[in-house]
Amino acid sequence: MKTSEEQSASSLVDAPQGKKKVGFCLLIGGAIFMIMGGVSMYLPSLPLLENAFHRTQGELQFTLSIYLLFFALSQLPLGLLSDRYGRKPIFIMALSMFALGSVITLSAENYGLFVVGRAIQGLGAGGLSTLTKTMGRDVYSGDELTQITSYLGVVVVGAPFLSLIIGAHIDQLLGWQGSFLILAGLAVTELILVSLFLPETFPERKRQRVSLRTLQHDIGIALHNKVFLRYAVIFAMINTIDVAYNTVGTFFYQNTLHLSSIEFAWLGVCLAVGLLMGLFICRRIQGGRNDILGCVLFVIVSTMLLFVSFAKIESVPSLLIPMLIFSVGMGILFPYAFSKALSAADHRVGLYSSLMGSFQIGVSFSASWLISLSYDGTLLSFAVIVAVCTVVITFLTLATRLAE
Fold first, then answer.
1. Domain covering 17-198+210-403 in this structure, CATH number
2. I need a labelling partner for 148 at 20 to 30 A (CA). Which of 14, 53, 337, 364 fits?
């Protein structure tokens, strides 16, 4: 017997199975890779950009913050448009924006134009983020949704670190422009493949016109959905730690510890292994204990980072070991929180996904911006952000457990 949730999802459109399921995951995974690449592929090149544009470390870190800001701003409107006009046309629109932003950034001759390109990239990435979450929820539910999420989680896990490695090697060959050349090429390729092969997952009979009154009503319902809110906040806190690490790591490893961009990038392989271990554990845990185990690991990470910060220990292991443990915890908790949050959504999955994504990236933008203002070459600002996020995750996990 199917649950009402599974019946609701399956009534929308036939879920891709077999080879079509693999193709669906590859197309969605390709978009996720670009989103993550927009964050991390150019990080090894930040010291080169510092010299090219004659800007400070804080100003270069701000180019990540502006990407995240416009990422957050585009999710709700593009999510609503997908509820009205279908997923595929808005997916194509978002890909086009990402490709345009990549070209502008690639050809930028000054810092101002570079920031404009990053903003347009962020707009496209925000739409892609909403739709990659929504389209999976359109056609899958329950355990199958968690399984698909864990498969795509491999891309979420691997993309930042593979992007770092690609970026570190390509800037040796083509300079800082190389990363954006690759992102532009990927966006155009994905645009062609999506136009030809990606199915529409939200049929016309289910689409709705969006009025201001209806939007206010639906947002109000979503914001009163306690299960959705708790897991959406947990999801956002995990992502915030990850983004904060990306903001701090490149300058800490390269400028403070004097590692090369390639050495910095290959450290990411260790974190990728940790994430894969976490995803493996996530698929094996029974009885919904992912949240408790994830919290325990995050508390350990926070304690370690605060210790090394106040003790002023500056070495590769002082950051790498805590982040390896975090990576395992992220792999355990990230797909669990995502599937729980969207499983609490009703038929307005696009709206719920947009709200979750906007909150996720909005919080990450705030953390990234604060670090760009306060980073002094040490790990203290990063450790404080990890501690705050860990407290929030632990509190909400315990509150959810007590409410069950």
1. 1.20.1250.20
2. 364
Structure tokens, 114: 């570079």
The DSSP 8-state label assigned to residue 257 in this structure reads S
What span, in angstroms and rounded, lies between the C-alpha atoms of 158 and 141? 24
Position 319: which residue type?
L
Q: Quickly state the pLDDT bin for 160 (edges 50, 70, 90).
A: confident
**Degrees, nearest 5: CA angle 64-68-72:** 170
DSSP string, 330-366: HHHHHHHHHHHHHHT--S-HHHHHHHHHHHHHHHHHH
Instruction: Report the pLDDT value the prediction gives residue 181, as an integer from 0 to 100.
Output: 95
Q: In the chain, what are the domain boundaries?
A: 17-198+210-403
Pure H helices in 41-176 = 46-53, 57-85, 87-106, 111-139, 142-174
Assign 15 a pLDDT band (cuts: 50, 70, 90).
low
Count of residues in the chain: 404
